[in-house]
TrEMBL record:
Binds 1 zinc or iron ion per subunit. The gene is hutI. Its EC number is 3.5.2.7. The lineage of its organism: Bacteria, Pseudomonadati, Pseudomonadota, Gammaproteobacteria, Alteromonadales. This is Imidazolonepropionase. N-formimidoyl-L-glutamate binds at Y145, N324, G326. Pathway: Amino-acid degradation; L-histidine degradation into L-glutamate; N-formimidoyl-L-glutamate from L-histidine: step 3/3. InterPro entries: Amidohydro_3 (IPR013108), HutI (IPR005920), Metal-dep_hydrolase_composite (IPR011059), Metal_Hydrolase (IPR032466). Catalyzes the hydrolytic cleavage of the carbon-nitrogen bond in imidazolone-5-propanoate to yield N-formimidoyl-L-glutamate. It is the third step in the universal histidine degradation pathway.
Amino acid sequence: MSWDQVWIDINIATMDPSKSEAYGAITDAALAVKDGKIAWLGKRADLPEFDVLATPVHRGHGGWLTPGLIDAHTHLVFAGNRANEFELRLQGASYEEIARAGGGIVSTVKACREADEAELFDLARRRLNALAKEGVTTVEIKSGYGLDLDTELKLLRVARELGKHHHVDVVTTFLGAHAVPPEFKGQGDAGTDAYVDLVVNEMLPAVVAENLADAADVFCENIAFNLGQTERVLSAAKALGLDIKLHAEQLSNLGGSELAARLGAKSVDHIEYLDEAGVKAIAQSGTCAVLLPGAFYFLRETKLPPIDLLRQHGVPMVLASDFNPGSSPICSTLLMLNMGCTLFRLTPEEALAGVTRNAARALGREQRVGVLREGMDADFCLWRISTPAELAYSYGVNPLVDVVKGGKLIHQ
Ligand SMILES: O=C(O)CC[C@@H]1NC(=O)NC1=O
Ligand SMILES: [Fe+3]
């Protein structure tokens, strides 16, 4: 066989649901890469003959290969920080009180409107590097801290540029309906409706015309956009050919997830307040449940997402960092595996599926990444672990040894 590289002395967590073994595991394995794709994988004893003189052979020293990690929900591009609010909250102010007093998202908006693309790019690249060092090979980045046309476009251009200058694939999401900007505040629903007009009639067409977003998202919550406003934005985005997703049921249940399911959303995200009707709706529509334990932890939430119902109804569960300056200033995908298990009681296998197979599905990339199978992109990580469960069990000493992205070895 003529391959570009072969990996031996490895175990593989394929995360392939068609395999009966936990993690889709293949022990004493080998894997071959050709033209950026997985060409062969299986037991080393079954490895076909290949030209050992012409083919680079990588030894894994008994470590584990997993699919490259996917962080399917980040707000990575932003300026400023909200440490002051962290202090206020520790003095008793709630996240909602701070938002209603003009803090929260809107305070980051000011910093983003003032920052130029170069500054935003440099800040975001450092954060993306941190995720990449943990084995992330695909990341979703949302806008949402501009809340005016120019700044929303600026944030999405920075996200697109990041993808061009980094081995990590960047999937972008327009989140212009993240909060009501100051210039529309104080006018009640009429002001919010007027801002939604701007989002629908000007921002979305401009974003699509410049191909700056792969999806659109809305913060459907009583401190942001109601069900009718959410439907206007998501329907307009769908009509323009974008995938849709939704920040839903984070602080209350407005029925956002059922709306998202009806519109065919790729995912509903946060969903601490999701009820069984909502679980059934997203199960029916094939929508993924994106769990964000970083925000739950940082905001000291107490309402757990309905994990048992999601399991019972077979909803694909995703874990993501939700990295953002307000509710989840935690730039770590690996830590989300530990939090998903310790806080949300996922199993380690569910947690790993949440940042591989299911995360790919939440981004519409399940045909290419998230599972190690012949024909899929050669995006994989080599970990110095003795069992895949270690990735969720322990945090702090990074077990990543090597990353391969599209067949290219990314030196650590
Ligand atoms: O506080 C921020 O800056 C973003 C908060 C973040 N956005 C959202 O829709 N929900 C969240 O937790
Ligand atoms: Fe978020």
